[in-house]
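Posting for a labmate who doesn't have an account.
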Amino acid sequence: MVAVGTHKIAILIVLLTVLQSFCHEKRFPASVGNLEKKEMEDKEKLAEKLVKSGLEETAIILQKGDVKLDSLNTPFLDKGKIYRITRFLPTRPLIIYVGVDGEENTYLLNADAEKFFEFVLKSGLRIDKKELKLEYAKVYLKVVYLPNGRLEIVENVQDLKPRPNLSEEKRREFDEFQERFKTVVKKPECQESRCVLFVVKGQDLVKMELEIAGDGKVNVKETVLEKDLLIPYAL
């Protein structure tokens, strides 16, 4: 009982520290607009939930001034939400994905398939329609498969832009690449349990094939179609 009481006291101390950090100066400066106020309020609420779930380190990150908080589009969940915490570091942004289920338990989801599946099952997962399954596939790739690297869905290879200042030879190579793949790359699509998406992963063009079971479990097969694309480098 003493150990449990001590743990609760520790959680309370961390929670108070986090909340005090939000209120250290003025709660909402006069220059802050309504959207910024809402984001600050959302940060406070999420920080409290994180601390209660034992995720104090993530709660502390939320208090940093260089952090943005938003949420993902998750129409495949009846309840619950996935938040994206973006901290802007000197070299590249750090992105943390946090799930909050219907009972307000929180989960760190980055690159953790088992935790992701646990979260979605407690959040009323619905993937009985192909459009819901497709949105689920997109979020899975973003949150679990490659949360902190470049992974951009491509619907048309003509949408890819060449790297600036290419030589004539390299520009010709890029044009030939687009011509070669203009009938290969297609919009994301799901048929029954299989979803196919074309993405830029890092600097490569990749075909992603996802087998999605009824309980949300995902098996991913990737095929590199073209390496070292002549597009701007990822951060």
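Reply:
Got it, the structure tokens are right above this. The chain has a mean pLDDT of 90.
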